[in-house]
Amino acid sequence: MNNPFLLIPLLFKSVRPSRLTDMPAVSNAFWLRKGYEALTFFGHIITATQQEADALNHHYDALKNHEMIHLRQAQTTHDSWLCFYLYYLYFWLRALPWCLRRPHIAYRSIPFELEAYEHMHNLHYLDDKHNGTSRWRDYARMKTKCRIKLARHES
Q1: Of 57, 110, 120, 140, which residue is most buried, by most CB within 10 angstroms?
Q2: pLDDT per residue over 1-52, tens digit each?
Q3: Parallel/antiparallel/unpaired status of strands 44-47 and 38-41
Q4: How confident is the model over 49-89, as pLDDT tens digits?
């Protein structure tokens, strides 16, 4: 599925993040840019190929964990996909002027991504009830320059 408009029904079928316990994976190569494996889209995981989507639907691995951390983060942003994406866009736009030559660093410096990349290989991270995946709030309190420095170090 390469048609960008085929994702519109997913938008209208979306439910509040708190009502989800899992996110199904679907394929749409149009939305994935080079270097990105998957993205969270209103309660679904978008992958480049159907084989990758099938693999995520059947096996819980680091990539699926990364995207599930984004689900938990959306639950902590007023339980709203819209708020999650507005925060996401805000932090990306704040970092972009510092990273014009390397926009990938602006993406990696988003507090949501910092937390997800930090914990994606810990498959029990979401099991910790005390954690609540609110580490992104600590990153959000940091100055933009500090987050960019962290992102450069980690990528």
Answers
A1: 110
A2: 567 777 788 878 889 999 999 999 999 888 887 788 999 999 999 999 999 9
A3: antiparallel
A4: 999 999 999 999 999 999 999 999 999 999 999 999 999 99
* pTM, rounded to two decimals: 0.93
Gap between the Cα atoms of 13 and 76, Å rounded: 21
- Going along the chain, which residue ranges are E strands? 25-27, 38-41, 44-47
Token pair 């984004």: residue? 70
Question: What does the alpha-carbon distance between residue 112 and residue 93 come to, in Å, rounded to a whole number?
Answer: 14
CB atoms within 10 A of CB 120: 18
Q: Which residue has the tokens 């602006």?
A: 106
User: Residues 65, 22, 129, CA angle at the centre, nearest 5°?
Assistant: 65
